[in-house]
UniProtKB/TrEMBL annotation:
It comes from Mesobacillus persicus. It is an enzyme of class 2 (transferase). This is Phosphoribosylglycinamide formyltransferase. Pfam families: Formyl_trans_N. The keyword Transferase applies. Residues 2-182 form the Formyl transferase N-terminal domain. The active site is at residue 109. (6R)-10-formyltetrahydrofolate binds at residues 65, 90-93, 107.
Length: 195
């Protein structure tokens, strides 16, 4: 069975659709760990409900990124995780995890990258007045949303569109796209070799 760790900071709707896809049998995988950098985030409650182990931490209690990523790496090694799935994890991944999981960390971002990287991609799209935006799944590298693109799906921005309706439309697309891409990647992967 392929194993993944999901990293999230907030609501966790993408965490939930991945769990739901596994339950429905659409995804042959296991979510071995939720990593969350925001105590109190709703995604933690979801993990509790779903019986998924959690590592919840406060970055400011650590000396630096290498310090907490080393601790995370210890958990991931122990669990023999195949894939790290960032789902609304609002933090750059540092060299500790990037080197250990090269080509095995993916992210979902609410825009058609390379347009509108970074924070508030939906607000950026509305401010730019574009007629199309969307969602992108990409490999993670050291940059901000700069890694190789795996899949994208577009969403139309209607005249006078509100942030809420646009966000809803993008999330609907994300909830189809992410399980599909995770399934494709896991199918093409060998079981994790111990690090
Ligand atoms: C998602 O829309 C995801 O694309 C975005 O955060 C949201 C998390 O929603 N990620 C980024 O903006 C990363 N730069 P969720 O917590 O409901 O899955």
């Amino acid at each position: 069975m392929k194993k993944m760790a999901i990293f999230a900071s907030g609501n966790g709707s993408n965490f939930q659709v991945l769990i739901d896809a596994i339950r429905k049998g659409d995804l042959q995988a296991e979510v071995s760990l939720l990593v969350c950098d925001r105590p109190g985030a709703y995604v933690i409650e979801r993990a509790v409900q779903e019986g998924v182990s959690q590592f919840v931490f406060q970055p400011k209690s650590y000396q630096d990124k290498a310090d907490y990523e080393t601790e995370i790496l210890g958990f991931l090694k122990g669990l023999e995780v195949d894939l790290i799935v960032l789902a609304g994890y609002m933090r750059l991944i540092g060299p500790t995890l990037l080197q250990a999981y090269e080509g095995k960390i993916i992210n979902i971002h609410p825009s058609l990258l390379p347009a509108f990287p970074g924070k508030d991609a939906i607000g950026q799209a509305l401010a730019a007045g574009v007629s199309q935006t969307g969602a992108t799944v990409h490999y993670v590298d050291a940059g901000m949303d700069t890694g190789e693109i795996i899949a994208q799906q577009s969403v139309e921005v209607l005249p006078g569109e509100s942030r809420e309706t646009l966000q809803d439309k993008i999330q609907q697309v994300e909830h189809e796209l992410y399980p599909t891409v995770v399934k494709m990647l896991l199918n093409g992967m060998k079981e994790a070799t111990p690090l």
